[in-house]
Design brief:
Strand order of the largest sheet: 2-3-1-4-13-5
Strand content: 15-25%
Largest sheet: 6 strands, mixed
Distance between the termini: 120 Å
Number of domains: 3
CATH topology of the largest domain: Rossmann fold
Number of helices: 20
CATH architecture of the largest domain: 3-Layer(aba) Sandwich
Structural class: alpha/beta
Radius of gyration: 37 Å
CATH class of the largest domain: Alpha Beta
CATH superfamily of the largest domain: von Willebrand factor, type A domain
Shape: elongated
């Protein structure tokens, strides 16, 4: 074969050539950086290759598809852990890598944002909402908010009663039976059993906490079924004066030393979580005998983006898997079917089996309870009109007192139910009380009961005047003229931060004024004209005595014209329960049924 070739090349072709001769160069930075640059380049290439291989294996193009979850603070940590594992699995939708992030936000705050016509940030920054309870969804629905139905339930936690382990035996002995009924009795300071003297009831703000709202709904349902719902009114009024804003605050207050054994409400998981972070003196869950309502952690997909919605639904399905549910149980929750984990053991006072479930309240019941609580926290402006006509001097059979004395005594008991910021006043009415044909007379002007009036507190002035009030032997019942004047006065002095009410206490059948005065048709027309739903002044009439039923039609029309109500008692002593009925009525006015 022609051509030149190297004579020193090995015959087998695998020998080594001698190293070429190179020109010696002085060492410098280039000598060091060249290998380093090569290493960096190699690392970058390897990283890119690994990224491509991993994403190729998962069919992912590398473009991120974010799913933003907003969850109740109690369940957010475990949902974040589940989301992290989910993200590591490299799930995709249409070739896009799904990344789920979970942030926390109080359910009440989120519900308020979703229900606001002017707030859009909550919707724009959330694709999935996991509140602690469907009660928030019911409340939003009652307000007309449009929200998709829940796709699933992430967990469950029964609402329980709770006390300190140090006093649990004594508390259970005092209550006799741990129940919603006994809780209400203990909260009601007027309860004849005297439980309030032994037990200190702690409430959880229902405006901020579903456990607090759920507890009140559970108690209301139980008492309604027993025909004792009136007891709840006094209890709620008492509880509204002092509530804990958070479960942590309530549970911490159990350890406060007091002469009365404390009892409150919380979710089962909140009790477990509190004990897990506390050394000594744990809280003890108590399960109501009638059953309870549970926090159900609904999962609501709020996004309208089809791709994000598909990814969100896939994550929702992941939450129902055994791995996720096991992680949820390990944090003191139960699974949606009520199954608890090993952490809810009897050593901690927990029940292995889920407690009996009470019926879940509908949206209307939720809205009604929320409204009642809100109105309970409004102040009171009350003008009481006392009938002092001649028949009020008649004796009450078997009571050893006159009708006038009985009504005065009952009224004072009722006034004590009102908090210190209430404004109360009293008039008496009959006919010709001032000698000039006027049928009414002001005994105590309406004002704060803690205000000083000519050197005497108004509440003491009310007590003194009612203790000495007497019937006018020859007086008739000038109700219509009195109502006209009282309604005009209360409308002129209307207070928007209070519930403005006129309370009539009479033993008659309505207006009975032989000298004329305003007719039944005229007073009804005036009230219908003057009544303003935006500034409601309601009339409550409590009538008693044998003549009362005769005037039912006319007196009921007067009350209804102002969003109020008529109560007819069989006898004077029955008036006492109608004070509670009247308080109950004022919670819903002016939108009461019936």
């Amino acid at each position: 074969m022609g051509g030149r070739h190297r004579t020193d090349e090995p015959e087998d072709g695998y020998g080594q050539y001698p190293p070429p001769r190179t020109r010696r160069r002085r060492a410098g930075r280039g000598t060091v950086l060249a290998p380093l640059a090569g290493a960096v380049a190699l690392a970058v290439l390897l990283g890119v290759a690994a990224f491509v291989i991993v994403n190729r294996d998962h069919g992912c193009t590398g473009e991120e598809l974010a799913v933003r979850v907003t969850a109740s603070p109690d369940i957010q940590p475990v949902l974040s852990t589940i989301a992290d594992d989910y993200n590591k699995a490299g799930r995709t939708v249409d070739g896009r890598c799904v990344t789920v992030t979970v942030k926390q936000r109080p359910s009440a705050t989120m519900a308020a944002a979703l229900g606001s016509a002017t707030s859009t940030s909550a919707v724009e920054t959330t694709d999935v909402w996991v509140p602690d309870s469907s009660l928030w969804l019911g409340e939003l629905k009652s307000k007309g908010a449009e929200l998709p139905a829940a796709s699933a339930s992430a967990a469950r936690s029964p609402i329980v009663l709770v006390t300190s382990s140090a006093v649990a035996p004594d508390l259970q002995a005092s209550l006799g039976k741990v129940s919603w009924s006994s809780l209400v009795s203990a909260a009601n300071v007027a309860d004849p059993d005297g439980l309030a003297k032994k037990v200190r009831v702690l409430a959880l703000d229902p405006v901020q906490n579903a456990a607090g709202l759920g507890a009140m709904l559970a108690a209301s349902g139980v008492l309604s079924a027993q025909g004792q719902e009136d007891q709840l009114v006094g209890a709620l009024k008492q509880l509204s004066q002092s509530v804990a804003r958070t479960p942590e605050a309530l549970l911490s207050s159990l350890a406060v030393k007091s002469g009365r054994a404390p009892i409150g409400v919380a979710s089962e998981q909140a009790v477990w979580s509190f004990n897990a972070g506390k050394s000594g003196g744990p809280a003890v869950p108590l399960y109501p005998a009638e059953g309870t309502i549970s926090l159900d952690y609904p999962v609501v997909v709020t996004t309208k983006d089809p791709a994000v919605s598909e990814a969100a639904q896939a994550f929702v399905k992941e939450l129902s898997g055994e791995t996720a549910q096991s992680a949820i149980r390990a944090q003191g929750f139960r699974t949606p079917d009520g199954k608890g984990g090993d952490v809810l053991n009897t050593d901690g006072g927990f029940s292995a089996a889920a407690p009996r479930a009470l019926p879940v309240p509908g949206a209307e019941a939720v809205a009604s309870m929320a409204q009642s609580w809100s109105r309970l926290n409004l102040g009171t402006r009350l003008l009481a009109l006392f009938d002092v006509s001649g028949t009020m001097a008649l004796p009450v059979p078997g009571a050893g007192m006159s009708r006038m004395q009985a009504i005065s005594k009952i009224a004072l008991e009722g006034f004590r139910l009102f908090p210190a910021d209430s404004e109360i006043g009293a008039w008496e009415f009959s006919t010709h009380l001032d000698g000039r044909g006027v049928d009414y007379r002001e005994m105590v002007p309406v004002g704060p009961i803690t205000e000083n009036v000519d050197g005497t507190l108004r509440k003491d002035l009310l007590t003194n005047r009612l203790a000495t009030i007497k019937a006018k032997p020859t007086g008739d019942t000038g109700l219509n003229d009195t109502l006209a004047a009282a309604y005009e006065r209360m409308s002129e002095e209307y207070q928007p931060d209070k519930i403005n009410t006129i309370l009539v206490l009479t033993d008659g059948a309505g207006n009975d004024d032989p000298d004329g005065g305003i007719s039944n048709s005229e007073i009804l027309r005036r009230l219908k004209t003057q009544y303003d739903p935006a500034k409601p002044v309601s009339i409550l009439i409590i009538a008693f005595g044998p003549d009362a039923p005769k005037g039912k039609r006319s007196m009921e029309a007067l009350a209804k014209a102002t969003g109020g109500e008529l109560f007819i008692a069989k006898d004077v002593l029955e008036v006492r329960k109608f004070f509670l009925e009247g308080m109950k009525r004022r919670l819903c006015a002016p939108h009461c049924d019936g």
